[in-house]
């Protein structure tokens, strides 16, 4: 019972930290929150340069490119995702390169 309560409290604290992180205006506050979360196994996910995979990334938009080698790669992360000890908490929202028409 105590272990279940501790896990529920941990999830609640992580949720509050992610809520605060999403609303933080200061880069220093964001960095400190991410550092604190990392200390307990929660890691930010910024897959810039990786191949877009709709199973693990959420497309927030596209960026045109003339370079065919970039098509389908992630140009930038709009909102970082997070994992807790390897388990996805939230998918990152990303901008994906697309070929220019």
From TrEMBL:
One Pfam family cited in the UniProt record for this chain: GrpE
Keywords: Chaperone
Highest taxon of source: Bacteria
GO MF assignments: adenyl-nucleotide exchange factor activity; protein homodimerization activity; protein-folding chaperone binding
GO BP: protein folding
InterPro entries listed in its UniProt record: GrpE, GrpE_head
Protein name, per record: GrpE protein
